[in-house]
């Protein structure tokens, strides 16, 4: 029996030693991977720095060139406004650009009867909404590729737009079409199609959806198909399209004046990465790997940037808290900072009306479409008042606090410069009327 126990103990010792060896080897492998990633990142940064030196030197040698859209630093909304304006062009009561875009580019089998291209960022914040008798086209513009697909607890971006059109514009699902326009060729995320009940519209829209990159579809269409059909006497329209085409060429480094610079930059990349023209498969694989490394680095940079941006906003809210403590020492200060699940930050004071709590509040939503709002909130209330008292209703009207919802009795968008001043005014107005 004792011999058996000795053998059992020895077996356990050997097993533990083996497990310990596996753990050490695993940790060693993990550390080697981390070191390899760190070295790879250093090499990547060096490549970017050296590339930037050549780029800056070559850019300085470019001939003088001016483009008004370049100088105005057009963002995504500006691109949407430009594109919507082009689609609104009419000639002999027809919409030649819109018709060619929907039929020739999107390949949608729909008739253009009485189209209305609504205001950009309207109809439930759709970038370019196009409404006609028998259809509704949703254009979601991602030309800058800076704003990710907005997938929140209320559902993915495309799903929300589809349901908004169904519910508010009396359109059946079969009458709704979706156009997605990223900078380079790609599809929207699967989450973009999910509604709040986790139902995906992706399969239902496979024949009424198209992804059109600006680089490979929209830019060539504008340059090669639209400019040629504009009458020569319509010089302002020609000028506008030419400026926009030139702006897109600048965005994609396709201008004629960029050719010499492109050759030098590509020569540098080939030499640094050891690319060989007679081995295109290997070269493509190396470039794919390097592109993935760059994407990973950019993702981390974006995360850090987001973290620091939130910190700047939190510092401002901390300053407002100090001011509230000084201006209203007898009031209960409330507020929440950003957390991992929510992109909202608030600061304000608790007030009481008819023995029910409400708050005078500043709130900031950190998102692709940020919003700084001030008003009277339900955020920290015991329960929502079913009927707004006349005194509060009077203040809401006086300061044009609108948009009552599950979170606000009334609020309005404000600026960083004016938000605390407005909050202080609302608190004093409330105290005075009480």
- Structural class comes to alpha+beta
Computed over alpha carbons, the radius of gyration is 29 Å
Q: How are the strands of the largest sheet arranged?
A: 1-2-3-6-7
Shape estimate: globular
Order of helices and strands: HHHHEEEEEHEEHHHHEEEEHEH
| Through-space gap between termini | 89 Å
Taken as a percent bin, the fraction of beta residues is 5-15%
Helix content: 40-55%
User: Segments where pLDDT lies below 50 for 5+ residues?
Assistant: 1-15
How large is the count of helical segments?
11
Count the E strands: 12
Average pLDDT value? Answer: 87
How would you sum up the major sheet?
5 strands, mixed
Summarize the structure.
The chain is of the alpha+beta class and 434 residues long. The chain contains eleven helices and twelve strands. Among the domains are: 181 residues, no CATH class; 121 residues, Aspartate Aminotransferase, domain 1, CATH 3.90.1150.
Written description of the protein model:
By secondary structure, this protein is an alpha+beta fold. Among the domains are: 71-251, no CATH class; 313-433, Alpha-Beta Complex (Aspartate Aminotransferase, domain 1). The chain is 49% helix and 15% strand. The protein has 11 helices and 12 strands. The protein has helices at residues 2-60, 68-71, 76-87, 96-105, 157-168, 214-226, 235-251, 259-273, 280-327, 390-398, 419-433; strands spanning 116-117, 128-131, 136-142, 151-152, 155-156, 176-182, 209-211, 333-336, 344-353, 356-365, 371-377, 408-413. The strands form 3 sheets. Strands 1-2-3-6-7 form a 5-stranded mixed β-sheet. Strand 2 and strand 3 form a beta hairpin. Helix 1 runs antiparallel to helix 8 and helix 6 packs antiparallel against helix 7 (235-251). The longest helix has 59 residues, at 2-60. It is globular, with a radius of gyration of 29 Å. Residues 1-15 have low confidence and may be disordered.
